[in-house]
Amino acid sequence: MKKFYFLLALMLMGSVAATAAPQKGVIGRDIPRKAVARKASSSVPQTLPATDVTPTGFTANWKATPGASLYQVTAFEPITVTESGTYTVLYEGFSGVEIGTFIEPYFPDEYYVNLADYDMVDTPDWQGYLPLFARGMVGGIVYSPYIDLTNDEGRFTVNLSVAGYAGAMVKLTATGTKEETKELYLTTNGLNEFSVEFTCGCHDTYLTFVDFGVQNDPDMEYADKWDFLDDIEIVQNLKAGDTVLRLIETVETPEDSGITSHGFYDMKFLDGACHLAYDVMAISVVYNDPFDDWDYDVYYSDYSALEYVDLPLSGIEAVKTDRTEEVEYFDLRGVKVSGELSPGLYIRRQGTDVSKMLVK
């Protein structure tokens, strides 16, 4: 199941949610939507070995695919699980959101915000449509990154905290092998905790969080009050030998450019990784009316096989300050962590031995 940018604009203001007529946009046109797509008639792209490999990046390469208008290329860090158990595959707490308050949220001028562009997130590709911000929280319509959730036959659990008002309803939708939507009702003012199970995990699963406000509000008492996503965690049961693909960066080439390579350098979310992989998807845009830029259909190929690449030097060397046999742990920002480790992904260092580890 692929995501693409058919804009189904949910105009969320207060407790009122209205659905506008669908519009269609292409990646690169700054109309960031994600929706179910049709299978492409073109063949699957064939990746080629990476070139220009440096300690901080590489150039991904692939063969041109007949009929392709553009390509999506994605870089991952493959992490192999060594012990069976329940693991946090992705966690985001929006700790970089430092504007607005619960009572007086901040409304940006842009209708669409890529949260990573403003250093609001610790994981890539979070998107907000008609977003609003309160310190450490995001409201409106929030899209997660692409997440590879093919392990455990696509089963996964989403734990989330929502700050808002009793009687409000939010919807959490998972789009993967199919679309599954859960309606979640807040029972108290303040933080509400939810745990939701889904079964539609695939290579490019994504989540959509939408605030619908207080449902029973005849006097419009809550018309100017909002509900926020405070933090979110995705958990899976993994077996020893399973591979988790941590998303690092995903990009699209310009439409009709004929480009068959992309340089991944100075990656914001590399986080010290040195063993990487990338894959490519071909996207075909077919215009039905040469005089109407919005009358077109979009088709997708399957993803290529993963192409692996090893950087010559891990970026974690930057946080190595001494050579001790003491075991030290760092979060993905390179900050040393003391005490008990909460579930998530960490960097483990013991002397010169540096590795990534998932904590259950």
Describe the structure.
- With 360 residues, the chain is an all-beta fold.
- The protein is 0% helix and 49% strand.
- It has no helices and 27 strands.
- Strands 9, 10, 11, 12, 13, 14, 15, 16, 17 and 18 form a 10-stranded antiparallel β-sheet that branches. Strands 5, 8, 19, 21, 22 and 23 form a 6-stranded mixed β-sheet that branches. It has a 4-stranded antiparallel β-sheet with strand order 25-24-26-27, with no helix packed on it.
- It is globular, with a radius of gyration of 21 Å.
- Mean pLDDT is 83; it is low at 1-40 and 314-324.
The helix content, as a percent range, equals under 10%
Provide the β-strand percentage band: over 45%
- Cα Rg: 21 Å
Number of separate strands: 27
User: Quick check: average pLDDT?
Assistant: 83
- Give the CA-CA distance, first to last residue: 28 Å
Overall 3D form: globular
Continuous helix count: 0
Low-confidence stretches: 1-40, 314-324
**Helix and strand succession?**
EEEEEEEEEEEEEEEEEEEEEEEEEEE
Structural class comes to mainly beta
**Largest sheet properties:** 10 strands, antiparallel
